[in-house]
Amino acid sequence: MGKDVIVVVQRDALPTTKESLDILLVSTTGEVPVAVYRDINAVEAVFGDASKTPNSKIVRKARTLLNQGKTTLAETLVDKFKIVGFAPPSSTPALAAKFVIKFTGAPEPTIEQSKQLYVRFGGDENTQQSLKTPEDEGGVKDAAGMAKLFEGITFTKGGKTYNAAVVEDTVTFTASETGEADTIPNIVAISDSEDFVSQLTIPLTATFTNGRDTLSAPDSLIETIKKFQEDVDNDWYYLMTDRDEDEYVKALSKFAEASEPSEAELGAGVEDHRKFYMGQTSNKDFVCETARAAVIYSDKEYINEEPDASYTGNVGPFYPKNVTWKFKRPQDGNAATSEGIKLITLPKLTDSDRNQLQENHVNYLTEEYKRQYVKEGVCLNGEFIDVVLGGDWIAKRMRDLLYDILLSNANINYDDGGFGLVATAVLQALAEASDDDHNIVSRDPESRAGVFNVNIPKYADSTDEQRRNRVMPDITWEALLAGAIHSVKTKGVLRVSL
Fold first, then answer.
1. Is residue 18 part of a domain?
2. Looking at the structure, do residues 107 and 72 belong to the same domain, yes or no?
3. Do residue 248 and residue 370 come from a single domain?
4. Does one domain contain both 428 and 395?
5. 369 and 436 share a domain?
6. 276 or 409: which carries more pLDDT confidence?
7. In a 10 Å sphere around its CB, with 0-12 CB exposed, 13-18 middle and 19+ buried, how is residue 106 labelled?
8. How confident is the model at residue 138 (pLDDT cuts 50, 70, 90)?
């Protein structure tokens, strides 16, 4: 029975927290669980003093991330980040694929002697081989007797030949070549008829373990990071590590580039957990034409100033507001305070060196007319860092807003009104990207409105198949990125199942 008096009290919503870069530092000197750190004392309590431990590099990076207050133009500083420690990466040898059959009981009934049998592996009739029970041992009575039938047997699958080795009740088929192989379903069928019109009941288990190619130490680190993402923590975006060697920087750059799923992968259900990598090098000829990664150069004797962390700590606090990463003055965050303000050390570069670095899209500190700053603020493929970070923010914000809409509405009709409701996620994300707090999308100088177009489909635009599956026609949009003084257009597609 309803009450005559109902009182509802509502509180103002709590203020939202300011967004910041989700930074992960990776140490490779030993396993340490991932944790959030907010000050250098907390870092040193786990990783030790920078001058006394093998983790000195990660401690220096943490300190320089935090100590950018004298030269940054941002109103705040990096105030938190994550650190995880992995074992030192090493190369791993190639492995061959294996298909293991373990017989777990006696066949029922006992298989008579001199009996012709046939076996198929993984349900594939092309792998069929023949077996024959012994002539003078009274048939096959136990698991070990079944395993013994497979001595000398081979089969071919996916261009690889598998050879049998028998130990008691277990048969191990090993591919004759190392490397990844076609997957074999964990199925073994045994029949007394060549056409498999019937199958024998034989207790067994089958297990396929794929092979792998030789992994270099850098590739091994990438696999460790991927496993960390999958099993422990994927709630981070911006990546730095304690490895400066060319092969590591290239591997990490390629990892970041591959982290952005394609439209086909998104359509197949792959989640979007794109990453951005910042690295450093002392190689003037370093080149790796990849997206989603930026590298800064330092002379070898000054690489321990950790210019990647210095650069990040100096410009990163602006996030999510869009600013150019050019013309910034990162300081040496590990310099003694008595030295006063000290920028990262100006590298000794000739005009030819500078041209080479610029051609390879590697950032570096330069001095022009007695003014020092970093140029050019770009990724390794030549795209501006701020453009990449801004585009990623739009994708994330648009996705978050869409889920808010889907979860807060009991039903969204498959009609023009429902399409318009979904489109508000696109419109709001682009409008926010245009405001003073973000400055990602350009604004019209007169109206101050964001310069973007959104094409909202109508019900009449949908196909019969889309209607059956409740899939909206694509919402397409185009925006003019502010990109500081570098204006670039970006386009997008939003595809939604209602």
1. no
2. no
3. yes
4. yes
5. no
6. 276
7. middle
8. confident
Span 484-489, average pLDDT: 42
pLDDT of residue 105: 87
Whether residue 126 is contained in a domain is answered as: yes
Query: Of 191, 209, 227, which residue sits at a domain end?
Result: 209
Mean pLDDT of 65-69: 94
Structural tokens at position 259: 């982290």
Whether residue 205 has pLDDT greater than 80:
yes
> What pLDDT band is residue 488 in, cutting at 50, 70 and 90?
very low
Indicate whether 474 belongs to any domain.
yes
Domain that holds residue 487: 385-494
Whether residues 260 and 238 fall in one domain? yes
**In this structure, are 392 and 408 located in the same domain?**
yes
Encode pLDDT of 272-306 as tens digits: 899 999 999 999 999 999 999 999 999 999 999 99
Q: How confident is the model at residue 383 (pLDDT cuts 50, 70, 90)?
A: very high
**Are residue 415 and residue 296 in the same domain, yes or no?**
no
Tell me: do 395 and 483 sit in the same domain. Answer: yes
Average pLDDT of the residues of the chain: 89
Mean pLDDT within 55-77: 92
Where a domain ends, among 375, 406, 421? 375
Domain count, the chain: 3
Domain-located, residue 142: yes
Residue 185 has pLDDT above 60, yes or no: yes
